[in-house]
Amino acid sequence: MIISVASGKGGTGKTTVACNLARSIKNVQLLDCDVEEPNAHILLHPKIQEIEPVKVLIPKVQEEKCTHCGVCANFCEYNALFVSKEKVLFFSELCHSCGGCSLVCPSNAITEVEREIGKVVKGITDDIELVYGELQVGEPLAVPIIKDVKKRVKRDRNVILDAPPGTACPVVATVYGSDFCILVTEPTPFGLHDLEITVQVVRELKIPMGVVVNTAGLGNDDVYEFCKREKIPILLEISYDRRIAELYSQGILFVEEMVEWKDRFLELFDKIARYLDC
Amino acid sequence: MLKQITVLSGKGGTGKTTLTASFAALMKNLVIADCDVDASNLHLLLHPQITKKITFKGSKLAFIDDEKCIQCSKCASACRFDAIKDFTVDSVLCEGCGVCAHICPVEAIELQERISGYAFLSETKYGPMSHARMIPGEENSGKLVTLVRQNARIIAEEQDMSCVLCDGPPGIGCPVIAAVSGIDVGLIVVEPTLSGIHDLDRAVSLLNHFKIEPLVSVNKWDINEKNAQKIKDFCGQKGIEVVGMISYDPLVVKAMVSGLPVVQYDPKSKVTEEIKDTWKKTYSFLMSTEKK
After folding, report:
1. Which CATH code is given to the segment(s) A2-54+118-277?
2. Which of residues 61-100 of A touch B (CB under 8 A)?
3. B60-94: per-residue pLDDT in tens?
4. What class is the A63-108 domain?
């Protein structure tokens, strides 16, 4: 079973929910797909076992074969190539690695070479396998790294995917293909606004979902009314508790210090499992 | 000379928008730009009246004409994004590169532009605002951010404003790069958590990478005073000025629920004083920078 954890708004507690859930159930693989700012390892303190570079393909122009005809630049939908009379300029950060330029070049002057844009790290902590991606600073494209992380999904495990904030392509790349999506929100106008748009994305992907309300008690009731209206189940409420915030600030999972929460996360997991069974 | 500043954070939810809204309320003569286009929130505090709406076509999508398709599968094997299955295009996976259309022997595939969002020019009671809304799940948020910033600069020049204040998206990827490229100062908002410190480090590296002057403001510093000190030490070592130490106050959420910037909601509170002080230092630093 693959459960993704998303939110729209940042800082609502995706990683907190993903890691505390992982700690409360068995046979877990946690994949941190927030490759721009991966944080799960800060809470889980894994022993690192493997680090692999993530490489994408980029064009390499062989100047001696190139006639500067401009067909490649014309074809490139991402404006990653610029051809002048004297030379070809390539902007690697705009390239999506589609391979189109080498395909269309009439003089076979373009080959493809690998370029590193980040890494995937695998580690272990007790019985949790943690995989996380890390985008190199200055690189724009998170999606290839997310896809690389997701290649490591082990379907015979309880897989948890921790998504990045927002509702753009990195979120879609993470949530895509999961069996269930937990949406973590806070009961504030910002939380609600971003929950509403994330619900649209998850609905479009036809993935069943439920909500976890974090820092419950702060803000107002609009999130609850929205969920009721949209018939989205509220799976768990985590009340605002300064102790939880302080433990998080120290990089400690609150289920480890406040053990009664383990049962609540287990119950959350059972709810999802039951839902998917019927 | 127009100055541009972006409020960013790396980690989400640290208080970028809360701070930006208050800064906007404290300062006349600036253009506000919300560069978080996929989960924007600034409008919930500034209530812009939209004066112009621009359709943004940021990407393309392949379409297969069933009647022409001979089911040879060449497109599916050429697609690097695994976006073609059973002779149809998965609009979620398609990145609009056009390789399928090129490879198709019977010209059954064409690329069509898709509307990825809308950009808006607006008025608020605090001044003009440039913002946008990306259609959920769409690509190319970076290009839309670039459009928001272009619009903001045009307004600034037309109305002779001295400064563009951008609310940035979380992360360090393409929309963030679009939100910081060419700016004068990046104000990083950080919380005193281990995750916050980790992400601060990456946000500072990003600004260094693009040769932009960083400033740091510590939000909810009293949640963990030890970590707040660590952040100060880190900034001290890197020569980064810490312009703000803002306390945790439930008032901030109350202001948000009322749809007001904190400094408007409770002008006499301690947290308002702290935000004012942060903006004063930020603004004077911004005005003292010289374009490289």
Report:
1. 3.40.50.300
2. 75, 77-78, 93, 96-100
3. 999 999 999 999 999 999 999 999 999 999 998 99
4. alpha beta
